[in-house]
Design goal:
Structural class: alpha/beta
Helix content: 40-55%
Largest sheet: 5 strands, parallel
Number of helices: 23
Radius of gyration: 25 Å
Number of strands: 14
Strand order of the largest sheet: 6-3-2-11-12
């Protein structure tokens, strides 16, 4: 297998703070707990986790018991059962990662995260001579149905999209069931799978999830395909009886103003460098209350707290009482979830993408305030799967894409100027015709809407169709759609199980075969 490495900046897009983390870590190091760039640095961080200060903070036996109870119905493979035994060891450490519970395993980057965690755990276990367990946190308490209810593959060179007909709302996806086996939508989904060495298995994995909730279906798929590598899987609902769950949530309720100030200070420091963590700091708690099956925000209104959709505010003590009696009725937001994870598991490193790395930079003070060990943030594998016949052209494709993006950005400026001109012209026209009959004014307004819509349509074509802005793009159009579908990285758009059907075991072998996981470039991998 061949791998070509490219600096992440050449790929474009992504989070600027996340990019800077990869290219200029010394400047950002004060925001994070440890240097991630070598096994030696991570080993030094692990020694702190094993020191006297933290040694007794983790109830590994209880944690392993809760994880084991969650996994039992899935009949985990022997390698996962061996990881469970390691987790109960008083000396054990974890490499943690996570993602929403996407249909068919979610985007390819989910696979890359999981394999990075498996490989990093193995490397650190060898370096430390201590048990290190890879663990995947399935964010099934998330209520973003649109994010998880999608399946995307390439068909005849074009990105083809599928969604189940399902109402969006505030219900956590752990409580949303996939359609029953009799639903005709399953046939449409299965028809998207390419013929390949694992098509039959992919179909079985999909259809056997019928009627299951998104969290269970996702966990089942992860254990089936990556459990043999020793990966453990957990949903937050299985951990609500853990004392650390209640401790961190109670601290968020009780110390909400102090927590918000810590987050705001970190955000301000980033902004002073012209950077954004990507997650806003507001007067809302980093916490949700589950009411009538819905995940609702909690707002801070001074002395009182207000749950979305509720007419009556609550006192802090009333909310804490609700937590004691119903810990499952709460779930953390993106800014509190890492603290809960790290309070439950002895986490040496968290494997994340650029966006996650960015907002984790807000959390150092929050970890200190809650007396929680903050892990190193380790960048996941970033990869594009490239056919052998296209490997020679991939570097040229990146260069062409960069030029194309420059031209598209330039065109965007022209369209912005044109739109402002259209609006100004119609505003003047309406003012001049103001004394005339109202029907004429209505016709002018309709013409304005139509003109602006036409402008938007043309702008969309310039963005989506390279041929519209460059004569030299004809030979590259096919490759752009294959490796950058709709302008995005393949790893963010294509569904993991669709690629597994097409490539079979070669998919996992290719991701595992990357020579060095401490090489944080984007890789074109030959398949």
């Amino acid at each position: 297998m061949r791998y070509l490495g490219f600096e992440q900046q050449k790929l474009g897009g992504g989070n600027e703070l996340g990019q800077r983390y990869l290219t200029d870590f010394p400047r950002l190091e004060p925001f994070y707990a440890a240097d991630y760039r070598s096994a030696q640095s991570l080993a030094s961080h692990a020694i702190k986790l094993h020191g006297r200060t933290w040694r007794s903070r983790f109830d590994r036996a209880l944690t392993a018991e809760l994880v084991s109870a969650y996994l039992e119905p899935f009949n985990p493979p022997p390698a996962a059962q061996a990881s469970l035994k390691k987790l109960a060891d008083r000396q054990s450490l974890c490499v943690l990662t996570g993602q929403q519970a996407g249909l068919g395993g979610g985007p390819l980057l989910t696979l890359y995260k999981a394999v990075t965690a498996v490989r990093l755990a193995a490397e650190m276990e060898a370096a430390l001579a201590l048990p290190v367990v890879p663990l995947f946190w399935v964010a099934s308490d998330d209520s973003d149905v649109e994010e998880v209810n999608r399946f995307r593959v390439l068909q005849e060179g074009r990105l083809t999209k599928f969604r189940f007909s399902m109402a969006a709302g505030k219900t956590p996806v752990r409580d949303l069931a996939l359609p029953p086996p009799s639903d005709a939508q399953w046939a449409r989904l299965l028809a998207l799978l390419s013929e390949g060495p694992k098509t039959a298995e992919a179909k079985e994995l999909l259809t056997s999830a019928a009627g299951l909730d998104f969290g269970t279906a996702f966990s089942r798929l992860l254990l089936r395909l990556l459990g043999p590598l020793g990966l453990l899987v957990i949903e937050p609902k299985a951990l609500v009886q853990h004392p650390a769950w209640r401790r961190i949530i109670a601290a968020e309720i009780d110390q909400r103003e102090a927590h918000r100030l810590l987050l705001r200070r970190a955000a301000d420091r980033f902004e002073a460098q012209g950077l954004s963590a990507g997650v806003p700091v507001t007067n809302q708690l980093n916490l949700f209350r589950h009411v009538k099956g819905e995940r609702r925000r909690i707002s801070d209104e001074g002395v009182k707290l207000k749950i979305d959709g509720s007419e009556s505010p609550m006192t802090k003590s009333a909310l804490v009482s609700a937590l004691k009696s119903d810990p499952a009725g709460f779930s953390p937001s993106a800014l509190l979830r890492p603290v809960i994870q790290n309070a439950i598991f002895p986490t040496l490193a968290y494997v994340g993408g650029q966006a996650e790395i960015a907002y984790h930079g807000l959390l150092k003070g929050l970890h200190r305030a809650t007396q929680t060990f903050m892990p190193a943030l380790f960048p996941r594998i970033s990869m594009t799967l490239v056919q052998s016949s296209d490997m020679r052209e991939f570097a040229d494709l990146l260069a062409f894409r960069s030029r194309l993006q420059w031209r598209q950005n330039e065109a965007g400026v022209l369209f912005d100027t044109a739109e402002r001109g259209v609006r100004a012209s119609f505003a003047a026209l309406k003012q001049d015709l103001g004394a005339l009959a109202k029907p004429l004014a209505s016709e002018v307004s309709r013409l304005e809407v139509k003109t602006l819509q036409s402008l938007t349509d043309v702008r969309g074509r310039v963005k989506r169709e390279p041929l519209a802005v460059s004569k030299e793009s004809a030979p590259a159009a096919r490759l752009l759609e294959r490796y950058f579908p709709e302008g995005e990285l393949q790893e963010r758009e294509l569904t993991w199980l669709g690629e597994y059907a097409r490539l079979g075991d070669k998919l996992l072998e290719t991701v595992q075969g990357l020579p060095n996981i401490f090489d944080f470039r984007h890789h074109a991998a030959e398949v």
